[in-house]
Amino acid sequence: MSEQTTLVVETRGPGLYEVTPDVSRWLHTIGAGDGLLTLLVRHTSASLLIQENADPDVRGDLQGWAERFVPRGTDPSMGWLTHTLEGPDDMPAHIRAAHLPVSLGVPVAEGRMRLGTWQGIYLWEHRDRRHRREIALHFG
Amino acid sequence: MSEQTTLVVETRGPGLYEVTPDVSRWLHTIGAGDGLLTLLVRHTSASLLIQENADPDVRGDLQGWAERFVPRGTDPSMGWLTHTLEGPDDMPAHIRAAHLPVSLGVPVAEGRMRLGTWQGIYLWEHRDRRHRREIALHFG
Amino acid sequence: MSEQTTLVVETRGPGLYEVTPDVSRWLHTIGAGDGLLTLLVRHTSASLLIQENADPDVRGDLQGWAERFVPRGTDPSMGWLTHTLEGPDDMPAHIRAAHLPVSLGVPVAEGRMRLGTWQGIYLWEHRDRRHRREIALHFG
């Protein structure tokens, strides 16, 4: 069994967009039993993340961290960047994406992802403008 | 073939806990041949890591780095955090976990993981208190 | 179906070495249809990365970032390192590798990796000297 689909996420600026329910629904649709789910984000300035889905403050602090960890190109500390043509949010987005997951593997038992109680799956948008992001899903 | 189990790791504070022998033993138990092993840590304040298993100084320096990279909430540089109710080690643990692997995929040939000579698999605990951590394993 | 091979990459110092064409060629050779490709780098001082394959400035800036993010052991800010016997580029290489992917999962449809338009797969070398690096590939 090798099932595939593409999940689309419409983003409106930097931050975490939860996709756990969409992924669960797809597993249900294809009648998934036991197997392995793989997610791949098809972009170089957005990431995947499994993180806490309880307190939204955690997501706010993760975004606050990202902005301090790799500041925008207009920040004096980033004056050494050479790839600046696509805007001050572009190269920092690539750097953040390099340090965050591009693919995830999640065991599935009886159709359900074996995530922990507090884990949700997110697309993390790093760009300012609206984007239509795609996640390739594979179950097998 | 789709085999699954849960590996339990009892942690006693921040640091790297090797699980390579436990994983190898499980692959032997299920009679694994050729296939793919996937590990998923079921927590948002602990990580997985494949790193050097020879000189223990490497593990000490990795922990030293983590504490400098994302200091505890009591450090003045982290005064901007909002998620502080669960203690000064909690939000830094989430941030460290966001930047380290939550899942790993390891090819297996004739029942043995195709790790390099110096690679071991670790659970990386980010919290101060003792925890019972779970890693979901899948072979297929 | 479970096919495996080892891809060898000869490196000449720090930087990103593209392997996308080699991986595509292997998938073609084995007659891959639909399934999952997994890559594992068999080293603790080199990484895998999926990043932009268009403007080479992006790769230059990623390397520039790595050198600022985790400076060499001779940098005063890294004076706390204890694992220094293998040279000033060794422990920083382990730290960079800990924060970058060691394994990647890529869905494959009709023999082609479902990468996005601008995504290429790279081996990221972190050491100064020449190395012969191995990537374990699995398709199933």
Compute the number of helices of chain A.
Answer: 3
Biggest chain pair contact, residues each?
A-B, 30 and 30 residues
Number of E-state strands of chain A? 8
- The residue ranges of chain A in which pLDDT falls below 50 over 5 or more consecutive positions are none
Principal-axes geometry of chain A comes out as elongated
Instruction: Write down the secondary-structure element order of chain A.
Output: EEHEEHHEEEE
Question: How does the helix and strand content of chain A classify structurally?
Answer: alpha+beta
> How much strand of chain A?
35-45%
Main beta sheet of chain A, described?
5 strands, antiparallel
Strand order, largest beta sheet of chain A: 1-8-3-5-6
Oligomer: homotrimer
Rg of chain A over CA atoms, rounded to whole Å, is 16 Å
Helical residue percent of chain A? 10-25%
Task: Map the helices and strands.
The structure is a homotrimer of 140-residue chains.
Chain A: E1 3-12, E2 15-18, H1 20-29, E3 35-41, E4 46-52, H2 56-69, H3 90-98, E5 103-109, E6 112-113, E7 119-125, E8 130-139
Antiparallel strand pairs in A: 1-8, 2-7, 3-5, 3-8, 4-7, 5-6
Structural features:
five-stranded antiparallel sheet, alpha+beta, elongated, three-stranded antiparallel sheet, homotrimer, 140 residues
